[in-house]
Amino acid sequence: FKAVEFPGGWKVEFQDLEKAAYGVEAVGLLSPAEPADQNPDYAFQIVAAKDPNLALAGLRIEIETRLRHLAMNSGVPNTENKNILSLLVLLETADILRKDEASALREIVDILGLAVHGAIVGEKSAAWAMRIGPRLLRGLDARLAA
């Protein structure tokens, strides 16, 4: 498919997901690809086949959790009640994320947010999350460990 439409006329194009993945890879936020493992590492992987929306929403939650921990571990104040976009601004302002990194993450988060808010996503989008999601989360985990 090329695009998915959902109530209200919003449209998510698969190419946008691929472009966003290229963006986070270009700025170095993706870990190297690993062979496919039969055992899922993340909750969003468990539901991907049955509920692609929930898988994309779960990936967004996993990203937000890591950004929140990154901010707290770096001593960024006032992160408790911030939404994910505010966290990105705080991390960029504190020079914990470069501008290009924050921008690439913002693009991913915006697209994943559409799934959270009711976009109907198909199997191809869930497959994208299964392919890119773990690499992004491992990349953010490496940031946390540094």
Q: Report Rg.
A: 15 Å
Strand order of the largest sheet: 1-2
Largest sheet: 2 strands, antiparallel
Helix count, per DSSP? 6
What is the N-to-C succession of helices and strands?
EEHHHHHH
Class derived from helix and strand content: mainly alpha
Q: What is the first-to-last residue Cα distance?
A: 40 Å
Count the beta strands. 2
Overall shape: globular
Beta strand % = 5-15%
Low-pLDDT windows of residues: none
Oligomeric state of shown chains: single chain
Helix content: 55-70%
How would you describe what is shown here?
With 146 residues, the protein is mainly alpha-helical. 62% of the residues lie in helices and 5% in strands. The protein contains six helices and two strands, in the order E-E-H-H-H-H-H-H. A two-stranded antiparallel sheet has the order 1-2. A hairpin with a 3-residue loop joins strand 1 (3-6) and strand 2 (10-13). The radius of gyration is 15 Å and the shape is globular.
Task: List the main descriptive attributes of the protein structure presented here.
mainly alpha; two-stranded antiparallel ribbon; 146 residues
Topology:
Blueprint: E1 3-6, E2 10-13, H1 14-26, H2 43-47, H3 52-73, H4 84-93, H5 99-116, H6 123-145
Antiparallel strand pairs: 1-2
Helix pairs in contact: 1-5, 1-6, 3-4, 3-5, 3-6, 4-5
